């Protein structure tokens, strides 16, 4: 085979290979307790191919952080799935507080780490969430947890430096965001 043909064949094979991998993550996602790779196939079909999930699986970045249009739905998901154990403002209850700079598992200060803990669970009552939330909803719930952060913005390592410069630690009285069931298109929904 000529060299150019070889290169072309190789390119085609690589392309077929990456297509076959489909929705697999470019980042390595592991269970917070066992360190084993997460099996993303366990997540519901729904909510797998939103722009936010695709971006997250490529980069580990959650584009829902501080996205105003998505925060009402994010709030609603947190109230229905998490606040019973973590408290209304994520101040802590049966489960630890999620609104300050202290983490039992330090990796939770990154969005990749937080996603891994939510998807695969941790110890005791913190079960895996892939049965209850789809991946798009996990990213939304994460953005609400980040919104509830009440400590020094310097500790908000999940924000871009631009977002950090304007971020205000959570204050329940300033600009309250009412929870809402609606899922706008920019947040992975089909409605506007
Ligand atoms: C049935 C109670 C319960 C529910 C519901 C629950 N959690 Fe937890 N969560 C816990 C407990 C208990 C722990 C402590 C586990 C540990 O230390 O391993 C925990 C730990 C965590 C941690 C690790 C915190 C740290 O300091 O590193 C995160 C993140 C978390 N939960 C997020 C969530 C989110 C998001 C939801 C909702 C989608 C949720 N949890 C729902 C009980 C719960």
TrEMBL record:
Heme c binds at residues 82, 85-86. The keyword Iron applies. The keyword RNA-binding does not apply. Residues 55-149 form the Cytochrome c domain. Keywords: Electron transport, Heme, Iron, Metal-binding, Methanol utilization, Periplasm, Signal, Transport. GO terms for molecular function: electron transfer activity; heme binding; iron ion binding. This is Cytochrome c-L.
């Amino acid at each position: 085979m000529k060299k150019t043909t070889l290169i072309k064949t190789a390119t085609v094979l690589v392309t077929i290979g990456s297509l076959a991998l489909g929705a697999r993550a470019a980042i390595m996602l592991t269970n917070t307790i066992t360190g084993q790779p997460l099996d993303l196939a366990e997540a519901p079909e729904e909510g797998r191919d939103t722009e936010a999930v695709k971006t997250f699986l490529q980069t580990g970045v959650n584009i829902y952080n501080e996205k105003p249009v998505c925060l009402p739905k994010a709030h609603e998901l947190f109230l229905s799935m998490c606040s019973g154990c973590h408290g209304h403002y994520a101040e802590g209850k049966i489960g630890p507080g999620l609104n300050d700079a202290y983490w039992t598992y330090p990796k939770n200060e990154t969005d990749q780490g937080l996603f891994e803990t939510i998807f695969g669970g941790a110890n005791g009552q913190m079960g895996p969430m892939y049965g209850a939330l789809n991946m798009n909803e996990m990213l939304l719930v994460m953005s609400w947890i980040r919104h509830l952060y009440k400590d020094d913005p310097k500790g908000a390592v999940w924000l871009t430096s631009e977002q950090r410069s304007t971020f205000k630690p959570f204050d329940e009285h300033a600009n309250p965001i009412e929870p809402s069931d609606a899922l706008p298109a920019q947040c992975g929904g089909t409605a506007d």
